[in-house]
Amino acid sequence: MPALTFNANNVAPSTGFDAIPAGKYQAVISQSSIKATRNGAGSYLELTFDIIDGEYKGRKLWSRLNIENPSQKAVAVAQSELSAICHAVGVLELFQSEQLHDLPMTITVRCVKNPDTDEMSNEIKGYAAPQTATPVRKAQAAPPPVASNNTAPWKR
Fold it and tell me: How far is the C-alpha of 12 from the C-alpha of 15, rounded, in Å?
């Protein structure tokens, strides 16, 4: 039997994670790996997204892109999503998935109910360039009207 030196009094218990609300979030890809599909007939690129600001900063979400699959439709969907990610972060020629790491983007998240368990989970359904706060410009006062040469001198 393996020996452990762990005292649960020193660590707060995990409370689990509920799905975050649907919406747009600023995120980065923090990890990526290629894994075999369950049936062994293909592979997928698993991407780990970290939310980088707001109330849910630090939360993780995952996306799995079928890069090899007997279904060409599944591969086409994955390629389209990967293209959206690449465009969102400005990496248009991708050679290693690590090129996508730590580059901010806006992800669109939706909530999905698992029909077997009735639990809510999240899906990433969109990728876009990061949203940046645009500075608010103060309205400038209109310049005083300029008298034209056709105006009588006493009206200038």
Answer: 9
Per-residue tokens: 35: 């894994």
Per residue in 8-56, pLDDT tens?
899 888 777 789 999 999 999 999 999 999 999 999 999 999 999 999 9
Q: How far apart are CA 51 and CA 129, in angstroms?
A: 14
Within 23-130, strands assigned E span 23-36, 43-51, 60-68, 105-113, 120-128
Q: CA 125 to CA 108: how far, in whole Å?
A: 5
**pTM > 0.90: yes or no:** no
Domains in the chain, start-ordered, CATH in brackets? 20-128 (2.40.50)
Q: Measuring CA to CA, which residue among 24, 41, 22, 43 is closest to residue 32?
A: 43
